[in-house]
Design brief:
The protein is an alpha+beta fold and about 625 residues long. The structure holds zinc ion.
Amino acid sequence: MPGIFVSAIICKIKTMKKIGLLSSLIIACLIVKAQPDRWQQRIAYNISVNMNVTANQFTGIEKIDYWNNSPDTLNRVFFHLYWNAFQPNSMMDIRSRELGKTVLGTDREGNPIYDWDDRVKDRIQHLQPNEIGYDSAVYVKLNGIAQKLIYHETILEVQLKTPLLPHSKNSFEVSFNCQVPLQVRRSGRDNAEGIRYSMSQWYPKMVEYDYQGWNANPYIAREFYGVWGDFNVNITIDKNYMLAASGTVQNANEVRYGYGESTDHGPQSTAKTVTWKFAAKNVHDFVWAADTAFTMIKKQMPNGPLFYFVYKKVDSLQSAWENVANTIEKAYPYIAKTFGAYPYKNYSFIQGGDGGMEYPMATLIKNASVGTAIHEFMHSWYQGLMGTNESLFPWMDEGFTTYAEQRVSNWLRGDTAFAFTNSYGSYFRIVKSGKEEALTTHADHYNTNYGYSVASYSKGSIFLSQLGYIVGDSLLNRILLEYYNEWRFKHPNANDFVRIAEKVSGIELQWYKEYWVYTTRTIDYAIGDINMNGNNASIVIKRLGLMPMPVDVLVTYKDGTQELHYIPMNLMYGEKPAENGIKRFVHDEWKWVDPEYSFSISKAVTDIKSIEIDPSQRMADLNRVNNKIVVP
Ligand SMILES: [Zn+2]
């Protein structure tokens, strides 16, 4: 945020009379404005809720400070009321059942595979009145005055009697009551593992307004985007429940259960309820969970966060959770070095939900799977710290997280093999199925769940591993850290990432973004003819796919020596540094319009043992059968 305020202040002072100062301040304005940070809204929530664990309902009051840092006058604001999705015939219910009509193929027994989330299917339609969820705002006051409310199911529109002026601070008060849905997806009570409360997307949450306008996406299954801000959350609940949440417990000595220096027993008070007080700063969401059988393991990293592992106290789960805790402790130094330090005080792995779902400073995972735990923790960077608009750029969250997860998992295994094979495999399969859609598709609007998943997770992770092929892995590592340094807490978009990559590598990458993100065009290079040209062999490489790329060609000779022949593509206006100890020859750039390219080597055809395009396999070449020839 500092960049925004500095810009506003400096630009006001420019009207001062002193000419020398004036001109230098105008220059300062230009410099500051040229920086990549944009204006951002800011919010501070003070939320107090009173939970009824018998009825599974709660009432709450939210006091919100909201800074309209935009240059716009806002005549209305919006809130997310996610839990209204868990009602028969909601948009989420209809969408799930519609997608379930698509058959993607058959399983091994010949049964059809439907394109729906197995956790949702048609379950919402069958929820009984005491099983549905709801979020209901009783009133929304702006600076003390009740405003007009219009419900759009999971989106609440608040029409303002007095508009929010540009660069103004305003106070909202929201009174609400909610019923916790029976767990269907992510949120809810009594999940399959018996966790009483998995409380995500639980409070009226202000919709983000940014340089692209309002992001009032009705909730139909996925993706969360929020306003950067601070949360103070007070939860009054039966004292037999242990809680875990985003943020840091403020009254550890009162609630106890192992927080702070306390024992693992609950509150000493004779009252039936206790109020848990949590604070989280500079986050865009807040999750909590509660159960009467929770217990925890704590791991304090030297110069790093305190990890909480909170799970149901069951003997059969103990060693699996200890394994997760020990693995995260081992991985954290590598993670911090590779992706940047985790900047908050604590992070909680909480048993709950229905798989794995990321939230700022916490995750809900249904069981003690190391792979899931690493994946969700790595979301702390791309969902938590970057806060990218996941609806518009789901691949920058799930894809980058998948990439990070695969790298961390490989490192833990001590595996030197290529870490991303699974992502390439699923991407190749969807291309061949004809169901691929471009990465620019809005997360809610993919035609199939299958198309969304492979684009976001697999093609998104290949975006990074393949960038390593284009700019070199050492520069990719610097790009990841520079992205973290430059864009955390700022909602970066695809272009922001690509600009960082260009600046760090000195290679132009607009073409990469345009082909890989905006289109579904594919890559296929092949080895063509090999001819004698005097004493030297010449090798023809063919571009069969529509997407151009730079090409690495490894030539292995019968005497055991190897040469790497590198052909930059002309739109790059640059070349990657040599990556390994193999002798490298850099050839003239390949103009992207040419379907063929040939280069000479210093030896004869009879000296060649094999020729291979991209032995690193980082280039997502759709047909690898034509990538290698072995000379008989
Ligand atoms: Zn994920």
